[in-house]
Specification:
Structural class: alpha/beta
Radius of gyration: 27 Å
Largest sheet: 8 strands, parallel, barrel
Number of helices: 8
Strand order of the largest sheet: 1-2-3-6-7-8-9-10
Strand content: 35-45%
Number of strands: 24
Shape: elongated
């Protein structure tokens, strides 16, 4: 499930300098959206590339008891001509409690505005001020691509109710003020909100919330040990080193193998040796024909990788993250063929370079490929599934 982080940066935050500080941090941290007022859309576009949602207030005029009230700030600044990626209805309206909810929601001004919006994505902004606002959010979700709900004296129950009732109809965005609240929102009912709207001036809180999003999206793999049946010196092959744009930890590496159903854990070159300096961005991954696992749960051939691609990094506990490929080095090197038997008796193999710098995790600890012996237990990811162009398929394929 894809998660998203929105950062609130409308005039409720403060003047333009305060809003710009939030937007800049959101850009640098990798947030997905910023939520601003319509007049700031052009300014945001000048700062960088990010999805922009803008509060729609009908030309900065809000109808309250049939009296037009003109926004003073909007009157003093020229309206932005830049288009947002999504318009959001509810500010200075029924959604935030400025206007009372009608007894019959068929007469709602906010819902009518949502229905008549054009081709842009539509968003509804609802503060859960009382039980009736949950019902209003449910109705808004029928019209909106994004439904933003902000709890007052927030409890989990309103969010649980909305996840259960409208989770499939809209992108549910939960208002939060901290990374810890974001974590809770993403985990509620084990399904979680699709996104969070963060209202915080703290740059570190914005960055932590993005980290929570990334962690929520990542899968955890069940790794297992397989017994080494054979380690055979063979001839030379075209070997692939994958150099990433990230520094890998000592317990991290990649999953590679000659057979997609059994991918062997190969450590990053984080260890120092008497012969060569550590290269903690590199995994010496094997021969060009081998598969490597990607963040979407698919595979690619090592020969296909190029700068800008994403690969999956995994640690020995099965925690995963993504890394960008910065460079791929292919050179002819002497190789080992390593054959393994899984717990259920399946045989899988891979080719790894004959070199002391290539390390693999065994049940007895980290070990150089050159020191592997029959009977060692080697860590791998096993799934009894065939692959077609890197995608798992339900069919019988023989690999040997």
């Amino acid at each position: 499930m894809t998660r998203a982080v929105w950062v609130k940066a409308d005039d409720a935050v403060g003047d333009w300098n305060a809003r710009r500080a939030r937007i800049t941090t959101a850009l640098e941290a990798g947030a997905d959206w910023v939520l601003v007022d319509e007049d700031d859309v052009g300014r945001v576009r000048e700062l960088g590339e990010i999805n922009v949602a803008a509060f729609r207030t009908d030309g900065d005029v809000t109808l309250v008891d049939d009296v037009d009230v003109v926004d003073a700030e909007a009157e003093s600044e020229p309206a932005s001509t830049a288009e947002p990626d999504a318009v959001v209805v509810g500010k200075h309206g029924e959604g935030d409690g400025t206007i009372d909810l009608p007894g019959d929601l068929s007469g709602s001004a906010d819902l009518s505005t949502l229905r008549r919006e054009g081709e842009l994505d539509r968003g509804a902004y609802v503060r859960i001020l009382a039980k009736e606002y949950e019902a209003f959010a449910e109705s808004a979700a029928e019209e909106a691509d994004h439904t933003i709900v902000v709890g007052e004296d927030w409890t989990i129950i309103p969010l649980e109710n909305l996840i259960a009732r409208i989770g499939d109809e809209t992108e549910l965005v939960a208002g939060v003020t901290s990374a810890e609240e974001a974590r809770t929102a993403f985990e509620t009912l084990e399904i979680g909100a699709d996104a969070v709207l963060l209202d915080s001036d703290d740059p570190d809180e914005i960055r932590r919330t993005v980290e929570v999003r990334d962690a929520a999206e990542r899968e955890t793999l069940d790794l297992e040990y397989a017994e080494v049946l054979d380690v055979e010196q063979i001839g030379s092959a075209d070997r692939v080193c994958v150099d990433t744009g990230s520094l890998l930890e000592h317990d991290e590496g990649m999953l590679v193998g000659s057979m997609a159903r059994g991918l062997v854990f190969v450590h990053a070159e984080t260890a120092e040796s008497p012969y060569v300096a550590s290269r903690p961005f590199r995994v010496n991954a094997g021969a060009v024909h081998a598969y490597v696992r990607t963040p979407d749960g698919g595979t690619k051939y090592l020969s296909e990788l190029q700068s800008g691609d994403e690969v999956q990094v995994v640690d020995t506990d099965g925690n995963t993250r993504e890394a960008i490929v910065g460079r791929v080095k292919i050179e002819k090197r002497p190789m080992f063929r390593v054959a393994l038997e899984t717990a259920d008796g399946d045989r899988v193999e891979t080719l790894l370079q004959n070199a002391e710098t290539i390390k693999v995790p065994t049940s007895g600890g980290r070990k150089a490929v050159t020191d592997l012996e029959t009977g060692d237990e080697l860590l791998l990811y096993y799934e009894d599934t065939a692959r077609h162009f890197g995608e798992a398929v339900e069919e019988s394929i023989i690999e040997k």
